[in-house]
Amino acid sequence: MFKKTSHTTAKIKVFHQNDWIWKEIHFKPQDEYKRGVWNWKENNPKLVQVGKKFFLHVSYESQVKLNHTNIQNQRICAVDLGINQSAVCSVMDAKGTVLARTFINQPIEKDQLYTITNKLRKAQSISGRITAPNFWRRINGLQKQIVNDTSHEIVTFAKEHRCDVIVFEYLDQMKMPKGFWGAKKLRFKLRYWRKKGIQNKVEEMAHYLGMRISRINARNTSVLAFDGSGKVQRNAKKDLATFTTGKVYHADLQASYNIGARYFIRGMQKSISEKKWLALQAKVPELSKRTEQTLSSFISLNQALET
């Protein structure tokens, strides 16, 4: 039970010396700084134990109005959560113009994470399926650091360029690749959990700022070249893609172009009639299959709409 007595003090009911009593607590000066939520509704606190100490976690809620910008006037931040880079972001407008791009990565934390996973698998191969709480405490701590840092970088980048929507890939359709075992299999699982955590964290932060979140079909976003030349060939480190024309480009960056293009194509398809869309498909055949849409398809769609 909790009772707020003043701005700096409160009372909680605790079991002390075989009796339930009201005990007064004092808030620290830093506890009064609520980071812009003074006008929000204060919910009941939650008692949390950390080690041998107890803390009161107070949550706040409010209604935030998300933007309703027309698809033709939108500016989006397309995010590809890659393998080598934590995230690659591209700002794109409704004409298919890429206005800005950035690369987000945490090489130190990832190097430590790979070292710990190798040690964990080595210990499990010797001792069997052990729980290894010390290993998992360090792994979860590094995972949390990567998720929080990446999420803040994405939202800050989108806010600086006045984006209306942050677009991700839909990850629930991802499957475990064949031939993965041991530490590689564990790292794939950690990467998938990390990507889901980043999306959930960014969604909370973006809604706080009034930005929307959208997800598109992830199939072939990295496989197809953004210029429409066909499938790409990835190098051994998976960071560079070679097009059929011989051009070499960053694999995750060109995937972010395709992610943004698919979002705009889907939005434009919903805004026009089915008869008109079929006429556009005759001019741009790539539009008929969503898993084959690229940035080149989106630019061709804009040209067809102008004519």
Outline of the structure:
The chain is of the alpha+beta class and 307 residues long.
Describe the structure.
- The chain is an alpha+beta fold.
- 38% of the residues lie in helices and 22% in strands.
- It has 6 helices and 15 strands.
- The strands form 5 sheets. A 5-stranded mixed beta sheet has the order 10-9-8-11-12, with helices on both faces. It has a 3-stranded antiparallel beta sheet with strand order 1-2-3, with no helix packed on it.
- Helix 1 runs antiparallel to helix 2 (133-160) and helix 4 (251-271) packs parallel to helix 6 (295-306).
- It is flat.
- The termini are far apart.
- The relative contact order is 0.11.
- The model has no long low-confidence stretch (mean pLDDT 89).
Strand-helix topology:
Elements: E1 2-4, E2 9-15, E3 20-26, E4 41-42, E5 46-50, E6 53-57, E7 60-61, E8 75-80, E9 87-93, E10 98-104, H1 107-127, H2 133-160, E11 165-169, H3 183-208, E12 212-216, E13 233-234, E14 240-242, E15 248-250, H4 251-271, H5 274-283, H6 295-306
Parallel strand pairs: 8-11, 11-12
Antiparallel strand pairs: 1-2, 2-3, 4-7, 5-6, 8-9, 9-10, 13-14, 14-15
Helix/strand-derived category reads alpha+beta
In percent terms, what proportion of residues is strand? 15-25%
Report low-confidence residues grouped into runs of 5 or more.
none
If you average the pLDDT, what whole number results? 89
Measured as a percent range, the helix fraction is: 25-40%
Output the strand order for the largest sheet: 10-9-8-11-12
Tally of helical runs = 6
Number of strands: 15
CA-atom Rg in angstroms = 24 Å
What coarse outline follows from CA principal-axis ratios?
flat
Please give the alpha-carbon distance between the first and last residues: 68 Å
- Element string (H = helix, E = strand): EEEEEEEEEEHHEHEEEEHHH
Largest sheet: 5 strands, mixed
